[in-house]
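Hello forum,

I keep getting stuck at the same step: I have a sequence, I want structure tokens, and every attempt I make locally crashes halfway through. Rather than fight my setup again tonight, could one of you with a working pipeline run this one for me? It's a single chain of 155 residues.
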Amino acid sequence: MKNKKEVGKALGRVPSGLYVVTAKCEDKEDAVLASWVNQCSFDPPAVTIALATLRSARLLVEGSGAFIVNVLPKDDNTLLKHFSRPPEDIFKGVKTRKGLGGIRILSDAVSYLVCEVVHSMQAGDHVLYIGEIVGGKMLKGGDPYFHVRDNGFNY
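Reply #2:
Ran it on my machine without issues. Output:
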């Protein structure tokens, strides 16, 4: 690729939201801070998420066929800070409730979407999942968090 530095700057200007994707399979559960979440269909309603191939949450999504997207709030960075550097017990100190299949919903999120995986594919160093939305709700409400990166080649 020519001009990788310039392409990285331009790609970084693509804004994205910040979310916590939660997953559970059998007795294992995990959560991952994610920025690559987008609506991809009206009927049925669906979103795409992209998870790095090395993320353990990815294996739980694949094992259970489900995930929950928790939308982070713009005005409160508590969840963002917690999931940026989570403790070993990832949900310790975070208010949650159980959703589909026991997957955690973050009580202090703006809203959440319950999704069942209908398709997945390898996309470079990430796996892209299409999740049909089967439930969801506004929680705290308010504006969602979004950000713009300095460089489109890393988080």
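The chain has a mean pLDDT of 95. If your local run keeps crashing, start a new thread with the error log.
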